[in-house]
Task: structure prediction
Amino acid sequence: METWDAITSRRNVREFAERPIGDEDLDRILEAGRRAPSSRNWQPWDFVVVTDRAQLGELAQVWRGGGHIAHSAATVVVVLPEAEDASQRERAAFDTGQATVQMMIAAASLGIGSGHSAVGDQARAREILGFPEDRYAYIMIDFGYPAERPLAPIRRPDRRPFEEVVHRGRW
Result:
């Protein structure tokens, strides 16, 4: 799939087919995240990949709206260091956004859907995943093949009109 098609095809998928993601494809998705740019090449993230069905079921419970995670083929939890100041937290959030979208676009290019979820219960997430006390789970990204319609470019996206969003030179 061409890059533009991957961008225009990506949508939040909440229902997944019972089909595993091959190791090569999953590694490609993770490599896309690893290669994401970050402030001063900080690379604050660690990725915890979960594919075990029972563990996915437990992970789905760390956020009240995370039920879709239980049915994903794989979920990547982005873990960040506890930041000492607001500037570090802001940089980590921005950098993680870049890594996240790169993984989602890489997945879409392979026909793999994705969604995202917050993490509410940090203690439970730490218990399930075993990350250190000086880290926290920032976001979960679930991946899998869409259960219903495959990914395809969305012809009429539910977005504000281009002319309303884009301002050239001035507002």
